[in-house]
Amino acid sequence: xxxxxxxxxxxxxxxxxxxxxxxxxxxxxxxxxxxxxxxxxxxxxxxxxxxxxxxxxxxxxxxxxxxxxxxxxxxxxxxxxxxxxxxxxxxxxxxxxxxxxxxxxxxxxxxxxxxxxxxxxxxxxxxxxxxxxxxxxxxxxxxxxxxxxxxxxxxxxxxxxxxxxxxxxxxxxxxxxxxxxxxxxxxxxxxxxxxxxxxxxxxxxxxxxxxxxxxxxxxxxxxxxxxxxxxxxxxxxxxxxxxxxxxxxxxxxxxxxxxxxxxxxxxxxxxx
Length: 272
Hints:
- By secondary structure, this protein is an alpha+beta fold.
- It has helices at 2-104, 124-139, 196-211, 253-262, 264-271; strands at 160-167, 173-178, 185-187, 226-233, 240-246.
């Protein structure tokens, strides 16, 4: 009996130990599995974070590269535009200098008769000196007068040109300005200070008067139609305004009909 009890206890102990060992193994396996899962999860998170960081870095580098390319392209355009402007400005200054030098050698053929200006018989430097002294004499008592600034091109700058039209006894039609203190017209073919395009328009109108039977106004007889021509040109806009000053308030039927049939206005306008 006693031996049986002892054997039972030993068997029970053996079973408990085996169960405990089995449980320990199962727990250890479960812990290993959990640890592995946790490790895999952590590694995955680290990998995702690393990949995300690498992607962000690559995107950032791409953006920086793109921004740099855009900035370089914009800077290149600005430099090209600046270089082009500088080249254009230099070319313009060269042209003005050459044109000024050529104009300095010219002499106005009617400088002593024309009443349009008083200084064309002098060089530009002499003109500037005289005008500087005149301004200092007038404004000097009130303050200091600064030196005059030179013009880039002191010729052909008048954008408003006025010319009188007259018919000579020989029948020739001329255009020009009045002689000083008189109503006598001084014929002018080319003025050194008036815009050349304006002069071309005035001369075109003068040349077309005879063809279209447009008679200049005669102050002595009061007969005739065209009296003055006024041309204004916008240097920046390129627009041109032409004003024909007539010697009559109204046109008689014959004059109006001849002018209309000849298409005088349409033809010289097309030349502008």
